[in-house]
Amino acid sequence: MKTLSNSSLITLVVVASALFVAAPVAYADSETVNGTIAPALANFPPPTTAGTVSQFDPSLGTLTSVQITLSGSGTTDIAVTATSGSPTVFTVLSTDLGLTLTDPSDADVSTLESMSGGPTIPGGGLTVVNGTPYNSGLDTMGGTPGSQTLSSNLSSFIGLGNVTFDLAGAASTTESFTGGDFTAGQTTDAGAGVTVTYDYTPPIPEPGTLSLFGTGLLGLAGMLRSRFMKSR
User: Fold this and answer.
1) I want to staple 84 with a disulfide (CB 3.0 to 4.6 A). Which of 43, 105, 109, 181 is the partner?
2) Which residues contact 87 (CB under 8 A, 6 or more apart)?
3) What is the pTM of this model?
């Protein structure tokens, strides 16, 4: 009858011990959700326009931080009428718009995106004839998306419903002119896309299966060693 060698027993014990002590470790993960904020007339204070995204499902683990990215979009329409002097020449005619996002707890407010736009002015300037209104038409505004990371006051982001964001916008127009007086006005609309990334730590699973399997192998090793010793 063949017997189990000492080296085989040692290998079995080492494998069983490794399985017994093995346990999953905590690791970081993330989930991204998206929402939109419909265009609305600026200047607008919150909560005139808002967007929603899904909350973080607490069954996934422990929420550690929230990253919010705002990608704005907008148009501006500038109207100018010369009231005296003819002609009136504009060399600068542009609009700047700052978009501010407010999180649900009304904390950690910041301007996440600055946008700009306006009509293209010829090299020699724009001539506006006295008494004849000039209207630029809709000019697209653009900017670079801005991000903000929150690591506290996260309770309003946790749940099984939606979280609501308020968007505020403040626009201003810069003009430079010679040759007379004028009146000017602007209409600016702005909206945004909101991307929220939840960083979290998943729950640590119980090592149950590996521990039980390791315990079984240790028991088997002990039984085989006993038989091996008796057969000598």
Assistant:
1) 181
2) 127, 128, 129, 130, 179, 180
3) 0.69
